[in-house]
Amino acid sequence: MLYRSPFRKDRNxxxxxxxxxxxxxxxxxxxxxxxxxVISFVSKITGLKDFKQILHRISTDTKSDMRxxxxxxxxxxxxxxxxxxxxxxxFT
Length: 92
Fold this sequence. Notes:
Elements (H helix, E strand, L loop, with lengths): L1 E2 L11 E5 L5 E5 L5 E3 H9 L4 H12 L30
Antiparallel strand pairs: 1-2, 2-3, 3-4
């Protein structure tokens, strides 16, 4: 879906937000050709250049906790036996 660009006066919507093929949230301003990810979008909107400041701004604006979360490590235990079987199915 196209929107009016937040970076300039735009009478005809030419700004898109989309998910890339790698699953990243991206933007593209078709009027100027500018494009980028969430970090570059927030940097351009706010004028912030420092990565930590940009993350802090995103965190406070969305009221989310962006600190890294550490999970308990789970160890893989190899099974004692391996059971291999054949299942017959009708051809369709």
